[in-house]
Amino acid sequence: MRRLCGILVAAAALAASGALHAQAPALKPVEVLPDPVRPALAEIAYSHPLFVPLDEPPKVVARLNPADLEVRVPLALAVRVLETGKVSEIAAVEPPLKAFTTPLPTLAPKWRYVPPTKGGRPVATWATQILELNVSLEKGVFSAFALEPLKKDDPLAKVFRESAGDAWMARYPAAIDPKDEGAVSVEELDALPAAEKTPWSFDATRQRTRVTALVEISDQGGVSRILATGDAEPLLVRWLKESAAKWKFTPGKAGGKPVASWMTLDATLDYTIDSAKKKAERSLKKNLRSIPPS
């Protein structure tokens, strides 16, 4: 009797469970909402970051040609030295003046080193030789000179990278690049190749160079900063800055008051390299025959 009652209770429980399942509503799939309409991004009008709106632009009061310059500068050279110590090629690396590259092809056959070695055996390498030159620049004349207020829509110009001393060399990797079959990086040698004969000569020459820059005119009417642009020559940038320190302007005005503002310079400089005499030289265990990262 007790067994029959248990069976009846279990059957009733199963029936109730089935009824509950039958009464439970089916789950509906989650409705996928469409992506909201995204508004178009507003276009931002371009404006040069150095542009200053002016009521009156600066005006030139006095602008002088560069005075003669006597200066000592380093000329870095990458020199391909063969296993015999002879030199097959000389290349200037970031020269202070591009004109200094002119005599290099004729100098290479005259130069000679103690053969470089690695592991006790002679090898070819690209030696780094620094010539210290006393340079004389004369008769500088701006044959063309345009100094205009910076406009709001002027494009961004590549600013010339300036560096002091030998710090710029750190940008160059240790490996020769592009690869030179058979040549070993000077940084991997047992000892630096010692220079035995490195004659240098440079004849006086007249040059013409285009100079471009961003020039800041202070609220006092002087040149406070010059940022050379494009493919500048370091020594000419220095010469330009020394000359510009003597220029005078009426400063630009905004709201009736003098303000600092920027101008764009596009000039042509004619000048004479009267001399470039070697006064000293040194060798470095630093590879410059490579391509530095931009």
Précis, in short:
It contains three helices and 15 strands. It is mainly beta and 294 residues long.
Give keywords.
294 residues; flat; two-stranded antiparallel sheet; mainly beta; 13% helix; 3 helices
Q: What features would you describe in this structure?
A:
By secondary structure, the protein is mainly β. The chain has one domain (59-284). Helix content is 13%, strand content 38%. The protein has 3 helices and 15 strands. The protein has helices at residues 2-23, 104-107, 234-244, and strands at residues 59-62, 69-81, 87-92, 112-113, 117-118, 121-122, 124-149, 183-184, 195-197, 205-217, 223-229, 248-250, 252-254, 257-259, 261-284. Strands 2, 3, 7, 8, 10, 11 and 15 form a 7-stranded mixed beta sheet that branches. Strands 1-12 form a two-stranded antiparallel sheet. It starts with a helix and ends in a 10-residue tail after the last strand. 20% of the residues are buried.
